[in-house]
Design brief:
Elements: E1 6-16, E2 21-26, E3 39-44, E4 47-59, E5 62-67, H1 72-76, E6 82-86, H2 100-103, E7 107-110, E8 114-124, E9 129-135, E10 138-143, E11 149-153, E12 158-161, H3 167-172
Amino acid sequence: MTTEECYRLGNITKPFGYKGQMVFYLDVDTPDNYADLDSAFVEVKGSLVPYFFHIDSINGNKAVVTFEDLTPDQAHALAGHDLYLPLDLLPKLTGNQFYFHEVVGFKINDAEKGDIGVIKSIIEYPSQPLFQVMNGGKEILIPVVDPVIKKVDRDQRTIFIEAPKGLIDLYLEN
């Protein structure tokens, strides 16, 4: 299993108590969906290693877990490491919801300008993510927000948008 075949679930942050329990930060929208999780891959020295555990409690995005077959010192040594799960465990999204990795390579079609290019990547800024769209050799950055995204067509691999007036022209005029 490689990181390309997985999604980042979160990371192991710190010990909890003195019996070897650890705190996971679950970097997901609905952490409670993972309450029954009993294993994950931990990135150790560039490789994904499977670990088994049980979740003792979840409070917000933090879960207290107990690893199976690890001493407290072995569990504590995992602090700071990232957690991964296989992509096929992601819940399927429908409608205009999507995972960022899912739409790379999709075309962007604007209501005013038509086909403006292909999504090269999603740039994640704290204020809002942006589609990085390539139009020939020019980069166009489009906010990934509900008012802009009108329709996601998975069959046609196209996202239909209504960009703010003048935004696309700013990139294409030079």
